[in-house]
Amino acid sequence: MTRLGLRYSAIAFALAALVAVAGVLMAPAYRDGVLAGAGMALLVQVAVFWAFFVWLYPGRAWHGYGLGLLVRLVMFALAAFVIVPAAGLPFAATLFSLVGVFWLTTIMEPLFLKTRTSNPTQG
User: Fold this and answer.
1) 22 C-beta neighbours (distance < 10 Å), count
2) Which residues lie closer than 8 Å to 92 by C-beta, 6 or more apart?
3) N or C: which end of the chain has fewer CB within 10 A?
4) Listed residue (37, 115, 24) closest to 80, CA to CA
5) What is the distance between the alpha carbons of residues 60 and 31, in angstroms, rounded to a whole number?
6) pTM metric for this prediction
């Protein structure tokens, strides 16, 4: 379990770094927003994976997946309505990088969940 979490965390970090580098290269003026969005998403994604998939629901992947989607939605709303305006970050750059990391790491999750099913006919 712990090895799975560490592997997921490393790949999530690499994807967040990819989004951050691409965002900074495309829009250097919005560097702070891009880095903040990618960083917030990375922290939430790794925390969600460890909390739901490794610790709380290790044998029930869909429980963790559903709760993880809910946490990501709440985080996006908090970022859009509270965090970004309060911090004075560029709105679009911050939210696009946040969503980019969320999307990439969310579509990566089934690859980790498939390896944990006991029945090889399950997807």
Assistant:
1) 14
2) 30, 33
3) C
4) 37
5) 39
6) 0.85
